[in-house]
Amino acid sequence: MTAIAATPTTIRKKLVRRAAKDRSQTLRHAFQLAFLALNVWIGVEFYLFVRFYETGGRSTWAGRPPGVEGWLPIASLMNLKVLIMSGSVPTLHPAGMFLLIAFVAASWLFRKSFCGWLCPVGTVSEYLWRLGRQAFGRNFRLPRPPDIALRSLKYILLGLFLYAVGSMPVAAIRAFLNGPYGMVDDVKMLNFFRFLGLTGGMVTAGLAIASVFIQNFWCRYLCPYGALMGFVSLASPLRIRRDPSLCIDCAKCAKACPSALPVDRLITIRSAECTGCLECVAACPAAGALRLSTPRAGWVPAWVVAAGVAALFVCICGYARLTGHWYTNLPSSTYFELIPHANDFTHP
Fold it and tell me: Which of 100, 150, 256, 297 could anchor a disulfide with 221, C-beta 3.0 to 4.6 Å?
């Protein structure tokens, strides 16, 4: 008797389209632009504050916005160590420390959401690579070996900063922050951009041009702040999860991922590079195939991420303000004395 070979059948997955249009990116972009506008306002306010003291009080007066301390991550790390080791809240640049705590908390709970939802540098970088995609029809990705090598740079920089801060005794940190350099390190940061030299200008231009061609060049390869948030996000209860039974293997999620993660080949995204931007979820055409979720509580929609990030930011910063730990209270005489000579102070 002749055996009849069974003809293999191809199982075709049924495409179940979305019941409603995904609006996660509209919400995320609104958050990004709002936080960028806040930082622009802080920058203008701080510039007017500095000019008032540089001119001896002859220009428009403006108060010092505490939010400028968010641009002082090293001082914030120092103050956080002082808080942990001594139990007392520092009096100089305390707002930066509370902002750092808020950003770390958001990245822990909502997958590195500071980078994907709030960071003004990340927002500018994102619009640069989108500009490049519109102009050239695509963005470029480095081959895997140099990509991995370059990605390690931000972790090396983070390690150096953590070592520097971790090796300083609390007394040394206090002496540094309460010295002339520490008192006006925010002014020195502003002056760096105000009086950008040829080398600094070339480096800044190079980073901007690289960001046009390569998605999030600074964030992906060089940002130690993002590296810190990435490490914290590894403990996040949230993950992007793919349901193979609903996935139609279109790979649109992987193409949409700004971090170049192989979302279409993984069940759960655990990488520290995932920013929780939900670009992959927005690109997925199959309902329920790709979602941000917890292991047991199920799907977490974009509005929950937005509300959670906003609540953490407002509550932590509000607590600092209500308890009197938000403002740096230095007398005007100190500012009149130090700010005009800020560039004369060198790092101890």
Answer: 150
CA separation for the pair 348, 339 (Å, rounded): 18
**What residues does 294 pair with on adjacent strands?**
298
CA distances from 309 to 44, 169, 265, 280, 317 (A): 25, 33, 29, 20, 12
Backbone φ and ψ for 311, nearest 5 degrees, come out as -65, -45
Residue 92, by phi and psi: left (phi above 0), alpha (psi -120 to 50) or beta? beta
Q: How far apart are CA 54 and CA 260, in angstroms?
A: 46
pTM comes to 0.91
| Structure tokens, 285 | 């055409």
Residue partners of 60: CB distance under 8 A and separation at least 6: 48, 51, 52
pLDDT tens, residue by residue, 309-331: 999 999 999 999 999 999 999 99
Rounded-to-integer distance, Cα 130 and Cα 29, Å? 13
Q: In what order do the strands lie in the sheet with 268-269?
A: 268-269, 239-242, 290-294, 298-299
Ramachandran bin of 115, using left for φ above 0, alpha for ψ from -120 to 50, beta for the remaining angles? alpha
